[in-house]
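Side project, low priority. Logging it here so it doesn't get lost.
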Amino acid sequence: MNVLHFIKTRTILTHIILWAAVWAFYVYFFSYNSENRQYVLWFASFLLPLTLVITYYVVYNLIPKYLLERKFGQLALYTFYTFVFSSYLLVLIIIGSYVFLTGFDIHAVPPMAKNVVSVLILVYMIVGMVSFVSILNHNFRTISQNKELQNKILSAQLRLKEQELHYLKKQIHPHFLFNTLNTIYGMAMAQSKHTPDIILKLSNLLDYILYQVEKPGVSLKEEVLHIKEYIDLEKIRFQDTLKVRFISGDIFDDIQIAPMLLIPFVENAFKHGSIINGFLEIEVNIELNENRLDFTIRNTLVDQDKDRDRGGIGLANIRKRLDLHYNNNYQLQHETKGQLYEVKLTIFNLNDFKNEGND
C-alpha cells in the first residue's frame, strides 16, 4: 500500500514539475524582444491549460486507443479534429489576450505572441515531445514485461523438466527392482546357497538406485560396475542357460554420464531375450574413444518376438532422458539380425552432458 502511494505521489510530482517547466519555457519564449512582463505571464498561463489538455488527450486517448492498436484511419481522423479544435481555442486565447490585456494596443503584444502559426507550432512541439517520451516509456515497459514473462516461462519449463526427470526415474526404479526381487524370490524358494550373494549384490544396486541416481551425473566407470553386478545377478538366476560376453575398454574416472542410462538396455536384453538352443546369449560392448561413447548390446531373439515392442518402460524413458541430456548429440539405433536383436547407442561428445541442475 505504501509502495502504491509512493508511486502515485512521485507520478503527480513529476507531472507538476513538467508543466511548471513548460510554463517557465513559455514565459522565456514570449519574453523575447518584449518588456510587457504582465502580458507574457498571463498569456503563458492561458496557453498552458490548452497545451496540457491536448497533451493528455493525445497521450491517454489517441496513442493507446488508435496508434498502439494500429487503427491508423481513426487516428488520422481524430488527430485532424484535435488540430482544428485546438487551433480554434488558440485563436480565441490570442484574441482574448489582445483585447483584455492590452486594450486593443497592438504594439503592447509581444512579437512572439502575434503569429498564430508559430504559437501553434510551439504548442504541438510540446505535445509531440511528451507523446514521444510516453511512447518510449510504453516500449520500455513492454520490453520489461516481455522479459519477465519469458523468465517465468523458462522457469516453468525448467520445473516441468525437473518433474519429468524425477517421474522418469521413479518409473525406472520399480521396473528394475521388480525384476531383481523376482530373482531373489526364486532363489529363496529354491533355498539356493547363492541367496546371500545375490542379496549383497542387490544391496549395492539399491545404494546406486536410491542414492547415487539422485546425483545430476555419475561416472561412467561406476555405471559399468553396476552393469556387471546386474549381469552377475542374472547369471545366478539363469545359471547354465546364460552366455554373456562383456567387452569394455579403459574408462577414466572423470567421464560423467546420466545415472541409470545404460542399465535399462541390459535389463531389457534379459527381459525380452530368448533362449535358443538352450542358451540366452547376450553381448555387451562398451568403447570409449576420447569423448565419444559407443555402447552396443545384442541378445538372442526367436522369430515370433521380432515384431514385438521390446522398448518397455525402461527404453522409452531412456530415449526421453537422452533427449534431455544429450539432445542432438546422440544416435540410438536398433535392428534384428537373424536371431540377434541389437541396440546401439552412440554419444558423440560426453563433455556436452547437461545435468539436471543446469537444464
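Brief comment: The chain has two domains: 2-114, 160-352.
Revisit when time allows.
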